[in-house]
Amino acid sequence: MTRLVPALLSSALLYCVFATSSMAAPTDEIVQKISAHVVKVQVSLENGGYGLGSGVVVAKDQVVTNCHVIAGAVSVSVNRNGENYMASALKPDWHHDLCILTVTGLNAPIAPIGSSEKLKYEQPVYTVGFATSSPRPNGIYGFVKGLYPMDDSVVIRASNAFRMGDSGGGMFDDTGNLVGIVTVKSPGHHAFYYNMPVEWVQALVNKPEQSIVSKSELPFWAESHEKWPFFMKVVQPLKMEDWATLETIATDWAEKEPHSTEAVFYRAVAEFSLKNTAQAELHLNQVVASNSNHSSALYYLGIIAEQNGKHEDALKLVAALDVLDVNVANNLKLAMGIKNN
Q: Measuring CA to CA, which residue among 96, 108, 115 is closest to residue 137?
């Protein structure tokens, strides 16, 4: 029977954020088409400074970006293929951190719109933005790792890392449809990367315009901790291995949102780490019954099976993870004492 210390379990769960599936990356043709929809956003600020971000063309002369990219701006321009175009107006959704710029004369290809709500765990996604002042858009290939219901859509967590300058960039599915907007990551190492859903963008397109210098408001993720959604509240106790706090937050989450699979999952993680293995196993099975692609839940079930002497059951879970996420499968093999070939 193989045992794993809690610290390694926590690291393995966080590692799932960066894990890689066995699915193929998008073709060069799709990548080229996707990149054509993404532009650089340049901001002159009230204090004399400047800011940079990214944006996606979502309608004729309409570019969506994050509101935090253009907050405090006295002027905003969009750069496409080395040419600058001034933004003349703004359609803001400050709470969701999404702002649509009117950029007359941009004449750029419009991104086809997909659906955030139809995404599945471990589905491949491709993010594009202008990280660290790059003159060309940079793409990151990754996979959906979390879908959190919020305000009639879902916030998307994916393994695609992003850097300063990527904010406002696009997340596309494997057919090239826009499904999300790159927005914010949790602090520190092993960050969780969150993308706002395309449905919120669609709701903004026909809203009335405002001045570029409109007064800004805080997005939900920049509010006080008490106002955060539960999917943000669980990250810090998870990283700090504060299992009692994690259990309290996850239990409250499950009570407030009884249909949330993620609430049940984080509760199970806390229960397992607090040695309440039977209850953790029960909850993990509930997660997998609702979402068979939940690689982190399968990982923990594999650990529990191995600890209970059910080696064959653990091997079946390794095989399932080999299809979903090779690195998580290898993590489980390592925990079971199995050497990778």
A: 108
φ, ψ at 65 (rounded to 5°): -145, 180
* CA distances in angstroms from 261 to 80, 208, 265, listed in the order given: 41, 37, 6
User: So what CATH class is 111-198?
Assistant: mainly beta
User: What's the pLDDT tens digit per position in 185-196?
Assistant: 998 888 999 999
Which residue from 225, 196, 188, 169 is spatially nearest to 34, judged by alpha carbons?
A: 169
Q: Give the C-alpha separation, 260 to 291, whole Å.
A: 11
User: What are the residues facing 140 on neighbouring strands?
Assistant: 127
For residue 210, what are the CA distances in angstroms to 60, 84, 102, 163, 225?
Answer: 18, 21, 10, 29, 30
pLDDT digits (tens, 9 = 90+) for 65-97: 999 999 999 999 999 998 999 999 999 999 999
pLDDT greater than 60 at residue 19: no
Helices (H), the chain: 6-15, 28-35, 67-70, 198-204, 230-233, 235-240, 243-256, 261-273, 277-290, 295-307, 311-324, 326-336
Residue 227 to residue 162: CA distance in whole angstroms: 25
Other beta carbons within 10 Å of 45: 14
Is 28 a residue whose pLDDT tops 90?
Answer: no
CATH architecture of 6-22+224-336: Alpha Horseshoe (1.25)
Residue 246 and residue 238 in contact, taking contact as beta carbons nearer than 8 Å: yes
Which of 26, 10, 19 has its CA nearest to residue 293?
A: 19
Give the Å distances, CA to CA, from 164 to 30, 98, 111, 247.
Answer: 24, 17, 23, 33
- Determine the Cα–Cα distance for residues 146 and 159; give it in Å rounded to an integer: 9
Structure confidence by residue, pLDDT tens digits, 144-202:
999 999 999 999 999 999 988 999 999 999 899 999 999 999 988 889 999 999 999 99
What is the CATH topology of the domain spanning 37-110+205-216?
Thrombin, subunit H (2.40.10)
